[in-house]
Specification:
319 residues, alpha/beta, Rossmann fold, seven-stranded parallel beta sheet, two-stranded parallel ribbon, 9 helices, 13 strands, 37% helix, globular, binds nicotinamide-adenine-dinucleotide, binds uridine-5'-diphosphate
Length: 319
């Protein structure tokens, strides 16, 4: 057992990012409590951890209070893709407001440090490029993405108010688009969509003219950043951008996926969804300075591992 072992709560632990984080914390010898209501998370994501003596799962909706004794909290619970967060937008906002108040209340009572999985969506459709943490964003407060964007903005407000008002130790990471094995195959995100379409030989759906950009971070790199941020000195509160600054257009991404899968799929162009940001790329100077961190996995390498995962799902008949 790790003599520095802590009791760590991971909300949203059965999701894509949460399951990778749980895996890493279990490997490090911590007592890991994974909490999830399985809205978008799946048991299969954590099945390999269930036999570990230092891993435990609680089925619970974090919008309702819960009393646990822990040393650290990683708050990841929240549907993350537009299809899922727009399915029940009121519940999405509740998950960023009521659930965040509960987790901050828990941190306040136990003295636990708490990490918030915030997002680049805080910047909305950004007017400055690349995005620095000081930028306040350009967010539509009443559109179809607002339940997520404004919810996450309010969550950041709550984090900083609990910090100022109650001295809670907070760590806010603004996550940019992340990909890798265990991404939900049906959540409509561009990397999973393109890979699944390519593997089935179906047309690859490019929204708009495909010239919009995103910066994609491989999941292992991101989890490393979470753990480093949690371990920083108390005065490092963030917000800190966590992402890969390599910027690609959706057309470039489509070509890479076709090349990697050897697919015969062709491109088909569909309308751009409402409020779809045109460019997105993190400035990660703060992460480099405070965490000594930068992503290591290049897009081609990470895509190859993600393709392998989806090929596995295809063989199992899941996709
Ligand atoms: P995900 O959907 O795979 O994981 C979210 C998890 O939270 C799921 O397991 C879901 O069942 C659970 N959950 C949702 N509402 C809940 C509730 N009320 N109570 C308990 N559990 C609940 O998504 P992900 O990609 O792993 O994202 C994790 C976090 O990171 C989210 O907060 C998301 O907003 C943030 N984030 C992700 C990305 C990305 O690119 N993946 C980018 C920015 C921010
Ligand atoms: N809470 C929780 N677990 C705890 C402590 C608090 O779920 O261990 C919830 C509780 O329901 C409360 C919320 O967190 O409503 C906010 O807690 P806080 O102490 O800030 O507020 P108060 O209890 O004073 O309203
Ligand atoms: N996108 C696309 N085809 C798809 C799914 C998404 O061209 O099948 C585009 C989408 O319009 C956006 C980009 O890819 O410009 C990234 O979309 P995603 O939903 O993955 O992330 P987000 O928009 O939240 O950054």
């Amino acid at each position: 057992m790790n003599p520095m072992a802590k009791r760590v709560l991971v909300t949203g632990g059965a999701g894509f990012l949460g399951s990778h984080l749980c895996e890493r914390l279990v490997e490090q010898g911590h007592e890991v409590l994974c909490l999830d209501n399985y809205f978008t998370g799946r048991r299969a994501n954590i099945a390999h951890l269930l036999q570990k003596p230092n891993f435990e799962v609680i089925r619970h909706d974090v919008t309702l209070p819960i009393y646990l004794e822990v040393d650290e909290i990683y708050n990841l619970a929240c549907p993350a893709s537009p299809i899922h967060y727009q399915y029940d937008p009121v519940q999405t906002t509740k998950t960023s407001v009521h659930a965040v108040i509960n987790m901050l209340g828990l941190a306040k009572r136990t003295g636990a440090r708490i990490f918030q999985a915030s997002t680049s969506e805080i910047y909305g459709d950004p007017e400055i490029h690349p995005q620095v943490e000081e930028y306040w964003g350009n967010v539509n407060p009443i559109g179809p993405r607002s339940c997520y964007d404004e919810g996450k903005r309010c969550a950041e407000t709550l984090f900083f108010d609990y910090h100022r008002q109650h001295g809670v130790e907070i760590k806010v990471g603004r996550i940019f688009n992340t990909y890798g094995p265990r991404m939900h195959p049906m959540d409509g995100r561009v990397i999973s969509n393109f890979i699944v379409q390519a593997l089935h030989g179906e047309p690859i759906t490019v929204f708009g003219n495909g010239e919009q950009t995103r910066s994609f971070c491989y999941v292992d790199d991101l989890v490393e950043a979470f753990i480093r941020l949690m371990a920083t000195d108390a005065e490092v509160t963030g917000p800190i951008n966590l992402g890969n600054p390599g910027e690609f257009t959706m057309l470039e991404l489509a070509r890479k996926v076709i090349a990697l899968t050897g697919s015969k799929s062709e491109l088909t162009f569909k309308p751009l969804p409402a409020d779809d940001p045109k460019r997105r790329c993190p400035d990660i100077t703060k992460a480099k300075t405070h965490l000594g961190w930068e992503p290591r996995v290049p897009l081609d390498q990470g895509l190859a591992k993600t393709v392998e995962y989806f090929e596995f799902l295809l063989r199992k008949g899941v996709i």
